[in-house]
């Protein structure tokens, strides 16, 4: 009896107290179970220490590595067998090697293959349906384009004074050039993501004419397609930077039998004999043709490549050049002179103020005094590439050495194709860590330079011209958007903020975008994927 009386009298206050306690418990359960677990403040070292899908791989930081080639340039007697020449009659379209055994394949990738839901995300049904809908009729094509155009920024973003003034996304077109409709949409996504420009590496996919036509891929774009790509990029306010290799990585021409005589070393179709003016004429012709097409779109920057030229100064004509023209510095003088002449040649052709960029890895190993004598620092801006998780190839002193001659530099990170050569699935966390590491590196190193121009976020199609594809574009797209968000929000490294921004840009449903092993590949986002090659 007394219990009922108590309840009647105190009923209301018990109900209120009870409700408060229930609310509090729900609140507690919520904050302890929602992502990220624990403190929402996640520090850089926690990311770096977090187990990643692929960590231990030796090839982690390779750029476009050569064929297991000795780096010692003096001893070429004991080099491996010459690389098998690619015959002109052979199919030139490199297909992805599916199901290829790869002993470096990470465990989780194999596990992913066994997952029943997403056997192959590149041909996920949702992506297919998106892709199939797009090109059917002109109206549908237009509707899709409008959908993206509506979101794309109308004017060039002004990033003066920002952490990275320039944020360029790299498109390596060798091997698998995207179809135009796909590429146009991708460029809209690039602009929409906030990048300020693109670096275009055409290689054998350019509509080469004249003496270069014979090296053109059967998948190459035609003039109208190139125009459509460039028009789209320009209308989106993107700065367009072409890249033409001029020193090493000339496999796309040197692999042909008739070009063999222009190699530095007959065993490798990579480096062109720098002392052979007849051979260099092919390089100059490539520069002429690309500049001719690009100059109407503006050429504030031009990239001459020049990375990973592991052997030079050994062909007969190079040795003669060194004997006659290099009173000091030997083959380094030959290489540096070549870069100088090439940079001047580019500047003379563009008919406008053009800054010449080159990868840094050769420059950093040349004698500082030789670079100074040639005043290369006034002609070329190095782009420092490092795709590792803690920028392993660029210790403090390497930046100091570069700073002796080059007042202005660029950073280069990766969004795809730089983890290991046989990678079919993308480890987005790996690239996230690489791009975060660049933010920290830039902050600590930039005081050595008068200007740090920006970042080029690279997406490699394959490890070199003769290798198979890795981490194809549809798979690399979410990573591209994510890495651009990191660059945009830098120096702020709040992962919740940049990940949320990436999810929005990719039109992902709530929580559908995550940087957690392979979960990122799902069908609840709105970007294009699926059958994308030309
Ligand atoms: C030395 O340099 C000059 C000027 O560039 C060039 O014309 C000449 O051919 C070079 N000598 C040799 C042996 O290549």
From TrEMBL:
<feature type="transmembrane region" description="Helical">
    <location>
        <begin position="12"/>
        <end position="31"/>
    </location>
</feature>
<feature type="region of interest" description="Disordered">
    <location>
        <begin position="64"/>
        <end position="138"/>
    </location>
</feature>
<dbReference type="InterPro" id="IPR038901">
    <property type="entry name" value="HEXDC-like"/>
</dbReference>
<keyword id="KW-0812">Transmembrane</keyword>
<protein>
    <recommendedName>
        <fullName>beta-N-acetylhexosaminidase</fullName>
        <ecNumber>3.2.1.52</ecNumber>
    </recommendedName>
</protein>
<keyword id="KW-1133">Transmembrane helix</keyword>
<dbReference type="GO" id="GO:0005975">
    <property type="term" value="P:carbohydrate metabolic process"/>
</dbReference>
<dbReference type="InterPro" id="IPR017853">
    <property type="entry name" value="GH"/>
</dbReference>
<keyword id="KW-0472">Membrane</keyword>
<feature type="compositionally biased region" description="Polar residues">
    <location>
        <begin position="109"/>
        <end position="118"/>
    </location>
</feature>
<feature type="domain" description="Glycoside hydrolase family 20 catalytic">
    <location>
        <begin position="216"/>
        <end position="387"/>
    </location>
</feature>
<dbReference type="InterPro" id="IPR015883">
    <property type="entry name" value="Glyco_hydro_20_cat"/>
</dbReference>
<dbReference type="GO" id="GO:0004563">
    <property type="term" value="F:beta-N-acetylhexosaminidase activity"/>
</dbReference>
<feature type="compositionally biased region" description="Basic and acidic residues">
    <location>
        <begin position="73"/>
        <end position="90"/>
    </location>
</feature>
<comment type="similarity">
    <text>Belongs to the glycosyl hydrolase 20 family.</text>
</comment>
<dbReference type="Pfam" id="PF00728">
    <property type="entry name" value="Glyco_hydro_20"/>
</dbReference>
<keyword id="KW-0378">Hydrolase</keyword>
């Amino acid at each position: 009896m007394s219990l009922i009386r108590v309840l009647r009298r105190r009923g209301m206050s018990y109900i209120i107290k009870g409700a408060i306690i229930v609310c509090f418990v729900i609140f507690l359960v919520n904050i302890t179970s929602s992502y990220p677990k624990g403190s929402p403040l996640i520090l850089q070292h926690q990311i770096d220490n977090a187990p990643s899908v692929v960590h231990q791989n030796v090839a982690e930081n390779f750029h476009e590595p050569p064929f297991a080639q000795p780096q010692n340039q003096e001893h070429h007697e004991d080099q491996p067998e010459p690389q098998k020449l690619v015959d002109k009659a052979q199919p030139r379209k490199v297909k992805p090697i599916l199901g290829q055994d790869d002993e470096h394949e990470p465990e989780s990738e194999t596990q992913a293959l066994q997952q029943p839901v997403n056997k192959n995300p590149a041909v996920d049904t949702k992506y297919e349906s998106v892709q199939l809908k797009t090109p059917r009729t002109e109206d549908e094509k237009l509707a899709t384009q409008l959908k993206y155009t509506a979101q794309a920024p109308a004017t060039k973003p002004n990033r003066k004074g920002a952490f990275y003034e320039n944020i360029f996304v790299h498109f390596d077109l060798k091997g698998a050039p995207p179809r135009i409709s796909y590429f146009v949409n991708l460029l809209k996504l690039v602009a929409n993501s906030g990048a300020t420009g693109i670096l275009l590496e055409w290689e054998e996919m350019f509509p080469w004419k004249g003496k270069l036509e014979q090296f053109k891929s059967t998948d190459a774009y035609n003039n109208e397609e190139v125009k459509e790509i460039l028009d789209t990029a320009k209308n989106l306010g993107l700065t367009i930077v072409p890249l033409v290799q001029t020193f090493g990585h000339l496999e796309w021409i040197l692999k042909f039998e008739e070009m063999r005589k222009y190699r530095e070393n007959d065993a490798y179709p990579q480096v062109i004999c720098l002392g052979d003016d007849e051979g260099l004429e092919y390089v100059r012709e490539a520069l002429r043709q690309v500049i001719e097409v690009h100059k109407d779109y503006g050429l504030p920057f031009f990239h001459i490549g020049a990375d990973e030229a592991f052997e030079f100064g050994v062909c007969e004509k190079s040795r003669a050049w060194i004997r006659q023209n290099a009173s000091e510095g030997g083959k380094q003088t030959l290489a540096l002179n070549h870069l100088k002449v090439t940079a001047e040649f580019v500047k003379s052709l563009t008919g406008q103020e053009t800054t010449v960029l080159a990868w840094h890895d050769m420059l950093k190993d040349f004698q500082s005094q030789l670079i100074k004598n040639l005043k290369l620092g006034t002609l070329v801006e190095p782009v420092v590439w490092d795709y590792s998780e803690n920028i392993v190839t660029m210790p403090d002193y390497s930046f100091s050495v570069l700073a002796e001659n080059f007042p202005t530099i660029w950073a280069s990170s990766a969004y795809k194709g730089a983890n290991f050569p046989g990678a079919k699935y993308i480890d987005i966390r790996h690239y996230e860590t690489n791009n975060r590491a660049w933010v920290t590196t830039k902050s600590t190193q930039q005081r050595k330079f008068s200007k740090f121009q920006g970042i080029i976020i690279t997406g490699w199609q394959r490890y070199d011209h003769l290798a198979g594809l890795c981490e194809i574009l549809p798979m690399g797209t979410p990573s591209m958007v994510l890495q651009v968000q990191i660059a945009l929000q830098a120096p702020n490294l709040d992962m919740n903020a940049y990940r949320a921004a990436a999810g929005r840009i990719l039109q992902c449903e709530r929580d559908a975008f995550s940087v957690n092993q392979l979960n990122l590949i799902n069908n609840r986002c709105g970007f294009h994927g699926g059958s994308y090659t030309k």
